[in-house]
Amino acid sequence: MKPETLKEILEWKPPNTTPIISDGILLPKSKLILFGMWGSLKSMTAMHTAFCIASGKDWFGFKTKKTTTLLIQLEIPKAEYRNRLIKYIRGNSVTPDNLWLVNESIIKLDRDYGFRQLEQVISLIHPGLIIIDPIYRILSGDITRGYDVGQLLDNLEHTMINDGVSYILVGHTKKFIPELVWNWGQELIGSSYFQDWTHTAIYLEREANTYNINLKFVKADLADRILPDKKVSIDRDTLRFTSII
Asked: E strands, 62-162, where?
């Protein structure tokens, strides 16, 4: 801990940084959480996000910076996930060489062994962004306990500080009655530490009997304006994402 005078802070020149996703949605060394109910196409959206950022392509109308990306998928079997990747690549004509993937069933990043594995991967490929889908699969403790969640978040913070990594985590909602929800930001399952920790939180809502999803910005601490909701249509045959609004 090193105290600085007001004069020192004002004279300090911060490094020039380009946002990973524009409009303050995701900056270097920052974090974003995508969350929604089961069946809200979170994993498809996470995969699309990884391809957009690794390629430097627009993401739902927002600019991105081409960034080496590590996508850790812990829920979908490898064979099925490979099929989705092939469909996405064919449908979108994109094959970034800076997109890395891990497809496992068990990685516990709140434990020393799992966290050391992550550090080894980071030292090998030097990602600027890590996407983890879903949150609950990387936690061996109780997702509702602040202490257990704090262990995980401290580890992730360590890589942000030392390695310059940004994070996108994919989470689920609690059981709820939609018409009684007054604040979507409170519906992410787990300790409130997650919502306190993240800079940006986006709730994904799927329209019934469609492949349309609504993205609601329930938290955007680094944005300099109120971010409008986005409506997106997904072509299930090609996995192309098209912004409607």
From this structure: 69-73, 99-103, 129-133
